[in-house]
UniProtKB/TrEMBL annotation:
The keyword Signal does not apply. This is DNA-binding transcriptional MerR regulator. Transmembrane segments: none annotated. Coiled coil: none annotated.
Length: 114
């Protein structure tokens, strides 16, 4: 592997760089909590060749959000559902904004120039 490819992985939010123990330490929780998020299908860690769970930075951000909700008293299943709904809402808003921008661009192209 060449050096630039290795450096690209550091910038890749989806690269599974963190072991279970390191991931739990980074977000201040336990491996059991991370396993529970996997069982709830909120995050699905990749597996190393040896079968060990590996987490990406993106997955750790999701897990940290779940931890915040659970720390506030939300049951883990509800926290996972909230995060999924928040993600769906964000995606819908992004698509809506793109459609509005596209529609506005189409309207300005249709107007005759004077």
């Amino acid at each position: 592997m060449s050096r630039p490819e290795a450096e690209d992985r550091f910038d890749d939010d989806d690269y599974p760089a963190y072991t279970m123990g390191r991931a739990a330490e980074m977000i201040g929780t336990t491996p059991t909590f991370l396993r529970a998020l996997g069982e709830a299908r909120l995050i699905e860690p990749l597996r190393s060749a040896g079968g060990h769970r590996r987490f990406s930075r993106y997955q750790l951000r999701i897990a940290a959000r779940a931890r915040e909700l659970v720390d506030e008293g939300t049951p883990i299943e509800a926290a996972c559902r909230i995060i999924i709904l928040e993600d769906q809402l964000e995606e819908a808003q992004r698509i809506n904004e793109e459609l509005r921008a596209s529609e506005a661009g189409s309207r300005s192209d249709e107007q005759p120039s004077r």
